[in-house]
């Protein structure tokens, strides 16, 4: 079937090459090209297709389908991608397995990275190759039923037995059961387990241990281990998140990951070079999240924008033909600022991934000085990006009207998986408060006359902007954001300090200032996102692409400033706010002809999108009917439930 002419026209009105834009989105022409090649190669392998739509499958079927594809994938892995390239591997996973999770998701995202960051050279020699060849499947078991956020209160113990030189693992209470780790329930046979290290009755706090959970031949749990699946979740049901308990389970001393902290055979403890070095796997995932969430948001927008260009409803001036709903200003206001955010998140994602890779090298060379900065940055970024991604996806769903609510749109599934990110890798409020600690410390440095020692990301806190040029360009908007973030950070810090000085304990003062502190963290992070977007656009060479991205940036800066209006009342007059509002409406109109091309440029395949509404060819209605007919409920005209219950009920009512 040929392409829907409404989409053909949209594509013809685009002012730039989508391949050139993809090269900007994905960091290089080479990688953008590799993505297309991988997608093309996969489309020719029939075993990679879903055996039937995932949304009609039970959990067992989804997990089995994922495992089937992983097995097929293992035959093609080396021929499809450069296996040393994490981005290529991730693209392959996204294409083939989609976003509902699978039994290797944690193996790749946390188990292997933990071995790389935390295992000594000898330990890597022993386990890393096996993990990379997938001879073993691993997961990351940290969270317990009773504690996820407060790692210091974890209850699982690893007690060193000097006589045998082993650690004895125990789960002393119900609440100490590991709870949530992905792939733990049924798939993994090994795990990195975070447990309190106890030597001679002294508790050294949480440390990582390499623990075999299941027999490598029979896959049966080993004696001393209780393990299983925690049941269905809001989404992510292709993954078997699990529970795990230990009863006097012994592992050799050599199974504590010892790149940084060590326990010698006589039971001596050697401290790591930085107290939080064991948290690096979390920082690794957080540093990926802006990218991954940006792609979730992008997926929902591809669906909503394409559908809005083929969906006709109501009239504007021309009463002879209904308009595309994408022509309504409200629809544009709903969708275009999110397109800008998706671009901005992906640009930030590349930046934080690069920073993590650099930090890993630095730490391996004994330099831990960058840890606090990256922890603060990624804590704030994961919180803001996951929240705004959730908001954007939900708006995209509503922008698709009734069909958006159908699983045929697939947007609810994207939403369910994406908003999990508000919780995993540190609950958002908690992580905003981690960033707030860093911001408060920065203010205290300024108060103590040490402004010059501030890092580049917080130097603006020491500046003093009180007027803004009316002729607003992106850099002036940045100044507006700096003003808002600076003001809020000072106000929140002063509130905290005042409470503390009034005699309140540090903790209580912090708690009573915490809403204001989280607001400061959000503004600081949104400033970082905007500044990264501006810098990125500034570096683009292709003038057509750059032109469109400047238009998109204008949507971004005007929308974001309007969104924080309450924080800039002292800086901007109501006339200036009106001016910005009008600039936003003009920017929406300017970007309109490029809307479809901007989402096409994400180059997310139909196979990955799994959306009837978001099909690249725009042939929505005939496929929606086909999709509905494939519902298992339509296999028969008369359901057994009708025969068994409704018919007798109706018959009885007739009497
Ligand atoms: C061949 C190549 C293959 C590779 C390819 C890869 C393929 C991948 C395939 C995947 C497919 C992708 C498809 C996508 C589809 C699916 C997407 C979904 C994926 C789902 C995965 C979910 C995984 C989830 C995992 C988890 O959730 S794991 C558990 C996470 N848990 C947490 O995050 C807990 C949060 N809590 C904490 O981090 C801490 O407790 C705390 C930081 C809140 C507090 O810690 P603590 O009490 O110890 O400290 P204090 O608050 O007192 O602070 C003291 C000071 O320490 C500083 N600090 C804290 N942390 C750090 C740190 N990390 N670094 C540096 N400094 C740190 C504080 O700042 C304090 O400093 P100060 O005293 O100066 O103020
Ligand atoms: C899809 C998914 C996958 C996951 N995968 C894994 C995995 O592979 N491995 C693993 O180990 N874990 C995993 N987890 C667990 C996850 O990391 C934790 O659920 C998460 O860190 C939040 O911790 P919690 O559940 O203890 O929340 P809680 O801390 O109980 O949060 C409840 C509420 O308390 C608030 N709160 C808590 N502490 C504070 C504080 N100090 N100040 C202010 N407010 C506070 C929070 O903001 C929140 O509103 C996963 C979770 C999900 C949803």
What features would you describe in this structure?
With 655 residues, this protein is α+β, with helices and mostly antiparallel strands. It has three domains: 19-100, Butyryl-Coa Dehydrogenase, subunit A, domain 1; 136-272, Butyryl-CoA Dehydrogenase, subunit A, domain 2, CATH 2.40.110.10; 280-448 and 474-614, Butyryl-CoA Dehydrogenase, subunit A, domain 3. Helix content is 55%, strand content 8%. Strands 1, 2, 3, 5, 6 and 9 form a six-stranded mixed sheet that branches. Strands 4-8-7 form a three-stranded antiparallel sheet, with no helix packed on it. Helix 6 runs antiparallel to helix 7 and helix 8 packs antiparallel against helix 12 (411-420). The model has no long low-confidence stretch (mean pLDDT 96). Bound molecules: ligand LY3KDABY and flavin-adenine dinucleotide (FAD).
């Amino acid at each position: 079937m040929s392409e829907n002419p409404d989409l053909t026209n949209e594509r013809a009105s685009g002012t730039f090459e989508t391949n050139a834009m993809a090269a900007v989105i994905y960091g290089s022409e080479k990688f953008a090209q590799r993505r297309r090649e991988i997608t093309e190669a996969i489309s020719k392998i029939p075993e990679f297709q879903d055996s039937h739509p995932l949304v009609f499958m039970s959990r067992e079927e989804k997990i089995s389908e994922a495992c089937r594809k992983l097995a097929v994938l293992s035959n093609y892995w080396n021929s499809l991608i450069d296996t040393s390239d994490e981005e290529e591997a991730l693209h392959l996973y996204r294409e083939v397995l989609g976003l509902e999770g699978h039994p290797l998701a944690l193996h790749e995202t946390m188990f292997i990275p933990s071995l790389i960051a935390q295992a000594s050279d000898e330990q890597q020699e022993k386990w890393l190759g096996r993990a990379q060849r997938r001879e073993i499947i691993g997961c990351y078991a940290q969270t317990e039923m009773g504690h996820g956020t407060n790692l210091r209160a974890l209850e699982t113990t690893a007690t060193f037995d000097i006589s045998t030189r082993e650690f004895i693992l125990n789960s002393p209470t119900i609440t100490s059961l590991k709870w949530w780790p992905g792939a733990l329930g049924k798939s993994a046979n090994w795990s990195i387990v975070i447990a309190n290290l106890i030597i001679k009755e002294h508790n050294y706090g949480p440390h990582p241990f390499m623990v075999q959970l299941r027999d490598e031949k029979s896959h049966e749990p080993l004696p001393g281990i209780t393990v299983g699946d925690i049941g269905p979740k809001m989404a992510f049901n292709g993954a078997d998140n699990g529970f795990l308990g230990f009863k006097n389970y012994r592992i050799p001393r050599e199974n504590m990951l010892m790149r940084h902290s060590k326990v010698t055979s006589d039971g001596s403890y050697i401290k790591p070079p930085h107290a939080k070095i064991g948290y690096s796997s979390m920082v690794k995932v957080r540093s990926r999240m802006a990218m991954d969430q940006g792609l979730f948001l992008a997926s929902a927008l591809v669906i909503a924008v394409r559908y809005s260009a083929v969906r006709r409803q109501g009239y504007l001036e021309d009463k002879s033909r209904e308009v595309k709903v994408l022509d309504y200003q409200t629809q544009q206001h709903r969708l275009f600022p999110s397109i800008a955010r998706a671009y901005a998140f992906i640009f930030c994602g590349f930046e934080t991934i690069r920073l993590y890779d650099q930090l890993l090298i630095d730490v391996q060379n004994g330099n831990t000085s960058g840890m606090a900065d990256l922890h603060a940055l990624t804590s704030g970024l994961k919180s803001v990006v996951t929240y705004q991604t959730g908001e954007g996806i939900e708006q995209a769903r509503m922008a698709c009207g009734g069909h958006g609510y159908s699983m045929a749109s697939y947007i609810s599934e994207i939403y369910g998986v994406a908003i999990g990110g508000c919780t995993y890798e540190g609950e958002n409020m908690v992580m905003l408060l981690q960033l707030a600690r860093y911001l408060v410390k920065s203010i205290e440095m300024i108060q103590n006359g040490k402004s010059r020692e501030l890092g580049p990301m917080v130097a603006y806190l020491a500046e003093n902007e009180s007027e803004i040029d009316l002729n607003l360009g992106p850099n002036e908007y940045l100044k507006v954001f700096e003003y808002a973030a600076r003001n809020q950070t000072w106000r929140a810090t002063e509130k905290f300090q005042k409470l503390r000085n009034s005699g309140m304990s540090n903790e209580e003062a912090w708690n009573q200032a915490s809403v204001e502190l989280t607001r400061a963290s959000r503004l600081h992070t949104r400033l970082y996102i905007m500044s990264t977007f501006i810098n990125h656009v500034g570096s683009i060479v292709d003038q057509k692409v750059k032109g469109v991205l400047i238009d998109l940036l204008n949507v971004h800066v005007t929308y974001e400033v309007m969104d924080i209006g309450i924080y800039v009342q002292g800086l901007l007059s109501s006339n200036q706010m009106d001016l910005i509002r009008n600039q936003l409406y003009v920017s929406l109109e300017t970007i309109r002809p490029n809307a479809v091309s901007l989402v096409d440029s994400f180059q997310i395949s139909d196979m990955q999108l799994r959306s009837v509404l978001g099909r690249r060819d725009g042939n929505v209605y005939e496929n929606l009917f086909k999709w509905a007919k494939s519902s298992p409920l339509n296999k028969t005209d008369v359901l057994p439930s009708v025969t068994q219950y409704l018919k007798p009920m109706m018959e009885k009512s007739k009497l």
